[in-house]
Amino acid sequence: MSRLDSFIRRLEAQRLVLNWAAAAISGRDGLVLELGLGNGRTYDHLREILPGRAIHVFERKLSVNPRSMPPDDRLMLGDMRETLPEFGLRHGRAAVLVHVDATTGVPERDRVELAWLPGHVAALAADEALVLAGAGLEHPRLRPAALPEGVPAGRYFAYRRVTEG
Ligand SMILES: C[S@@+](CC[C@H](N)C(=O)[O-])C[C@H]1O[C@@H](n2cnc3c(N)ncnc32)[C@H](O)[C@@H]1O
């Protein structure tokens, strides 16, 4: 499959998964976290399908389309390795949806450079929160969950944050 085809399928899967997640968290209070603002496409989609929901965005290097700029008080600029734990000190495990889109598209590199990320995500996610990711996350507190119909296996990943005993 060409990289163009692969990219298109990834975006289709993203939209399906985000729409599904928005419906899944309706009726449950809590924060939404967008990890990796990039161009702002998925952030823009999230704020459209989750009006009124607090969406906090994490990014180390701004390259966002100006139309998708989050408000200052919802944008955590800096390396997530530091900004996520800082956010946790202020908010605790208050997220009901975490969308992890921090990958580079080179899985071997991401596995090494983002090895710390699943633990940081688990530390911010409320019990049974939904965690979505473009690459697999491995952590004992993240339980793999089924994806909505139409998302090919391995294209996107979903997890539930394990309930603390
Ligand atoms: C694939 S892009 C995000 C795409 C975005 N969700 C969109 O729809 O346009 C990944 C982003 O994650 C950011 N990122 C990767 N590692 C990071 C880290 N450790 N701290 C903060 N941002 C990071 C990169 O700077 C990049 O902008």
TrEMBL record:
<dbReference type="InterPro" id="IPR025690">
    <property type="entry name" value="Methyltransf_put"/>
</dbReference>
<dbReference type="Pfam" id="PF12692">
    <property type="entry name" value="Methyltransf_17"/>
</dbReference>
<dbReference type="InterPro" id="IPR029063">
    <property type="entry name" value="SAM-dependent_MTases_sf"/>
</dbReference>
<protein>
    <recommendedName>
        <fullName>S-adenosyl-L-methionine methyltransferase</fullName>
    </recommendedName>
</protein>
